[in-house]
Amino acid sequence: MDIAKEGILLYDSGLHALATPGPIDAETMVAKAREELDYWVERGDVSVEYFRFGLEKKEYKEAAFNLHQATERYYTAVLLVYTDYRPKGHNILWFKNQAIGINPGFREAFPMSNKEERRCFQLLKRAYVEARYKKNYTITAEELTYLAERVQVLRRLTQTLCEKEIARLKGDIPTQQT
Questions:
Q1: Average pLDDT for 110-135
Q2: pTM for the full model?
């Protein structure tokens, strides 16, 4: 889909065409959604473990990077369960906004009601690059602890809301209850 949408045709032999995505039956959608949820939540949980190790060792930059990875992975689960699509990129603000567009309940994970909440989220967002490559990136144990609490809220929401979406795909609950 990315190639068809974003690609630039350099040469066309006329011998082959890109496949057109077709409808997927409900059973396949449920199985795929379940697989994606389980895989990405597990990957997020592993990143949380690495975060905890970094925090314990006072390697705060490494901890921040791994917390970013956990956040990105939980949001990836959301996008794949609800849309079966995850574009390339690592901008967790974009992921957050997509998740909220899917289900406003995801707002609870990272509230932005005051300057401090927004500042901490920006620290996490910047961690993907800056925690690894910028000497002057700093984050405290207290900021990491706060952010870890928010990531755990995201994990809980991801599990709960995605389970409801999978139940809806199965036909167990009507659409309006997701």
A1: 98
A2: 0.86
